[in-house]
Design brief:
Number of strands: 2
Distance between the termini: 46 Å
Shape: globular
Bound molecules: Phenylacetyl coenzyme A
Order of helices and strands: HHHHHHHHHHEEHHH
Structural class: mainly alpha
Strand content: under 5%
Helix content: 55-70%
Strand order of the largest sheet: 1-2
Radius of gyration: 21 Å
């Protein structure tokens, strides 16, 4: 088949809502697009363990500590499903980590902000997991099969995370005046970074066109952001907390909330490595990765030995 025929057949297959599987033919650009998005998604899950990990030793009760530990472990698991999904496209995990360490691969901007008080753990679950799940629900229908299947499980866990965050916020918002102040302060600091998670406006998003044509993305950045805003504002009202946006208003005609503009200078600063915690997050990841080298070597040695034993058994 000529290349153009192959490309047309590929597009028809996608338009028919079929899933692309690892051994199927795919355009190089589709492969690169998936590797970029899935690996960056994986890095986000893993780097995202750091801001919450900061509070494990200071959780206010044993129950809260157990829930937080389980939640952070889930995020690590999500990273692993996603690295595995990306590996099916022909990139190794070592290469993905190298790209992260060299600053060639990104991770979500939101994890470059600090967690200053316990209410931040509530705000991360409520807002960050809430934003993540809004995006990921649409990604369950992404065209790349392994990514789509990873999303099914991840979404179930993320919705639980969102609810545990909202539970913390409910307690804090209904607690002492000091707890209430902490809840409002956490909302003030996490609201805008959560909105930035959805990426630039569609008319400023170079990846969206291909992403949508190939059905890797199932909705634009603005549509998903709006969905998140529309469901989150009433949740803040229920808590009696104020969204830190003086321009926020309900538009009866469109049936949506209107908001003020995101600080895009801040967004670009953070994604280019100059946010409040970028250096700290990367240094921590590099150090722990180096410290864990012996675990990877032992696992590889074990796998080699098992393979040799299985071979000997098969010959015998
Ligand atoms: N942060 O043209 P677009 C989670 C980059 S998971 C950093 O719009 P695209 C779970 C973008 O990569 C959260 N970079 O790109 C959790 C591109 O750069 P590149 C992560 C950003 O791909 C919760 C450039 O800007 N979720 O939170 C950001 O069409 C709690 C141009 O942008 C996912 O990754 C940003 N916010 O749309 C864990 C979902 N926004 O690659 C622990 C999958 C944009 O050209 C605790 N990813 N950029 O160098 C996606 O849906 C998409 O990739 C978007 C960006 C929507 C992130």
């Amino acid at each position: 088949m000529e290349l153009q025929e192959k490309l047309d057949a590929f597009q028809q297959y996608i338009d028919a809502e079929e899933k692309i599987e690892p051994k199927d033919w795919m355009p190089d650009e589709y492969r690169r697009h998936c590797i970029r998005q899935i690996s960056q998604h994986a890095h986000s899950e893993v780097i995202g363990m750091q801001p919450e990990g900061n509070w494990i030793t200071r959780a206010p009760t044993l129950r809260a500590k157990k829930i937080l530990l389980a939640k952070i472990q889930d995020e690590g698991g999500h990273g692993l499903y996603l690295y595995s999904a990306a590996e099916t496209l022909g990139i190794s995990r070592d290469e993905m980590i190298r790209q992260l360490h060299e600053g060639k691969a990104k991770y979500s901007s939101v994890f470059n902000y600090p967690t200053l008080n316990w209410a931040d753990i509530g705000a991360i679950g409520w807002l960050v997991d809430g934003a993540a799940v809004t995006n990921q629900l649409s990604l369950r229908r992404t065209s790349y099969g392994p990514y789509s299947r990873a999303m099914l499980r991840i979404c179930n866990e993320e919705s639980f995370h969102q609810r545990q965050g909202y539970e913390i916020m409910t307690k804090m918002a209904n607690g002492t005046p000091e707890q209430r102040r902490m809840a409002q302060d956490a909302l003030d600091r996490w609201w805008w970074p959560a909105l930035m998670m959805f990426g630039p406006h569609d008319n400023n998003s170079p990846r969206t066109y291909n992403g949508i044509v190939w059905k890797i993305k199932r909705a634009g950045n603005d549509e998903l952001r709006q969905r998140f805003i529309d469901k989150t504002v009433p949740q803040a009202e229920f808590l009696g907390l104020k969204i830190p946006d003086p321009q926020l208003q309900w538009n009866e005609a469109t049936g949506h909330y209107e908001t003020g503009e995101i600080n895009w200078d801040e967004f670009h600063r953070v994604i280019s490595g100059d946010g409040p915690c970028n250096r700290q997050r990367m240094e921590h990841h590099k150090r722990v990765h180096e410290e864990g080298a012996w675990v990877r070597e032992a696992a590889e040695a074990f796998a080699r030995r098992r393979k040799a034993e299985n071979l000997t058994e098969a010959i015998a």
